[in-house]
Amino acid sequence: MIFSWLRERRRRKLLAQPFPPEWLAFLERNLAHYRYLSATEQAALRDRTRVFVAEKNWEGCNGLIVTDEMKVTIAAHAALMTLGLAGEPFGGLLSVLIYPAGYRVPEERWQSGFSIYGQSSRLGESWYRGPVILSWDEIQDDAHHPGHGSNLVWHEFAHQIDMLDRSTNGTPPLETPEARRQWHEVMTAEFEQLKRDALAGRETLLDTYGAESEAEFFAVTTECFFDAPVELREIHPRLYELLAGYYRQDPAARIEHASDSPRDVN
Q: What is the pTM (predicted TM-score) of this model?
């Protein structure tokens, strides 16, 4: 109880301060979807971004010095995911580790009954009760070239949401048996279709890495939902509707509304 009170007190003090102007520049430059949010949503995102930056432990790897731009960019992407969710989905996450680029980790695999040690290349990882690990080069590329349906931050933080029920199976905590039934029906059908498309070499909107497992499929669909929502709704309407219901957001409608809004003519 006392810890919760102290946390809320710190947050009130933090949020009473003006949002740093340079941080707003980071949001506008590195989070393309920020411009489509309503004024109320933008204010909520700024508050959640500041809390996330303040309460997480940030570590640079391989000599990287973590900057405010890195923190704000990552925190803002994570905050956007939570705008419609109850509670604090990332409240249990303590640390974010950032590499300057892709990195390699030791790996053991078995082949013909023998253990083989080697290394695998990675751009990011997400651990249960552990850190989220990210490549800054990849984050920058995603931020500067949005709309392709891929985004490392949303991918890895989708895994964190998946893990909220202590199981990494592609199904986040759902409130009712009906919601779980619908989730299983839609996600299974879409997952199996992606596997067939990947096997046949067909071009897909969804990254075929999602065909690796149900957990990767949820992460891939989440990044596409936020990064290419109009296209996802057009090509995979049932999947889009399911994710919009879960995240309680309609990013495709936001983009269309912004496109229909009249612009000032000088």
A: 0.91
